[in-house]
Specification:
This protein is an alpha+beta fold. The chain has an 8-stranded antiparallel β-barrel, surrounded by 4 helices.
């Protein structure tokens, strides 16, 4: 009898381990999506807005802990800025796969225990969300490539938006990024001059009327690291004497619409597994 129970326990343990391994494999294979929400905060409202997002962070953390999405982050746009800028803050929600994204986007964002999560003052702030900040737009990007330091510090991100010149398209842009630039950025990461690099495809909204269709993200530990960044010294060692030709091929495949520098302010902690 004892041996039968032992075998049963071993089978349960094996099935549980196998199930967890399968889940991990599925999550690793799933497309990673990032929903970017662009916010505009008027002068004099920044302190109140950041207090508002601190309250919202509790809601997002509860959703991350419940497995509804992977992460939430808050960044402030350093440049471009000024009265002509359409937005000055960006929040991001990360989803692992289409099912998780669809469920979160169509469900209720508020957890059932929201009254336990937030104080009366925080709830009052959340109820004034549309008064404190203007929600400008929302976009969804899918991750095509991602390289990084093992202990990446994503304190500064440079979000580069690309459109395509006449005669070129997404495949042309992704080819030069993968064939040339990814190796350059990997060398910079290995040298400790960069924290990470991401290649993104814009999924939503889509169509010819959109001003950009793909993006890259350069990740740095500090503003100083970003301001002193220079990929040119790596070209000869990696691609030989082809730097000018690579720049020409890059320009023929994609047009850089805007480089937006963001400072990381806050994020949720990962869900414990």
């Amino acid at each position: 009898m004892k041996s039968s129970i032992k075998v049963l326990l071993l089978l349960i343990g094996f099935c549980t381990s196998a199930g967890l391994a399968l889940q991990a494999q599925e999550e690793a294979a799933a497309t990673y999506y990032s929903q970017m929400d662009y916010m505009y905060v008027a002068p004099g409202m920044h302190g109140e807005y950041e207090a508002l997002e601190a309250a919202w962070k509790k809601i997002h953390q509860a959703n991350v802990d419940a497995g509804r999405y992977d992460i939430w982050t808050l960044s402030q746009v350093m440049t471009p800025n000024g009265s002509a800028s359409s937005h000055n803050y960006v929040t991001r929600i990360g989803y692992r796969g289409e099912a998780q994204m669809a469920a979160a986007m169509t469900g209720n964002i508020f957890p059932d225990n929201i009254e336990e999560l937030l104080s009366a003052e925080e709830m009052a702030l959340v109820e004034r969300t549309s008064e404190i900040r203007k929600w400008v737009k929302s976009e969804v990007f899918s991750t095509q490539e991602f390289i990084r330091q093992e202990d990446m510090e994503a304190n500064v991100t440079v979000f580069n938006y690309f459109s395509y010149p006449e005669g070129a398209g997404r495949s042309d842009h992704f080819k030069v990024e993968r064939d040339y630039w990814m190796a350059i950025h990997q060398a910079r990461i290995d040298a400790g001059e960069m924290e990470g690099w991401v290649l993104l495809n814009k999924e939503l909204p889509y169509g010819a009327a959109q001003p950009y269709h793909s993006a890259t993200v350069d990740v740095y530990e500090s503003l100083e690291e970003f301001l002193t960044a220079d990929p040119r010294p790596y070209f000869d060692a990696i691609h030989g004497d082809k730097m000018e030709a690579i720049f020409e091929e890059t320009d023929a495949s994609a047009t850089l619409i805007l480089g937006e520098v963001r400072i990381s302010l806050d994020r949720t902690t990962p869900m414990s597994r």
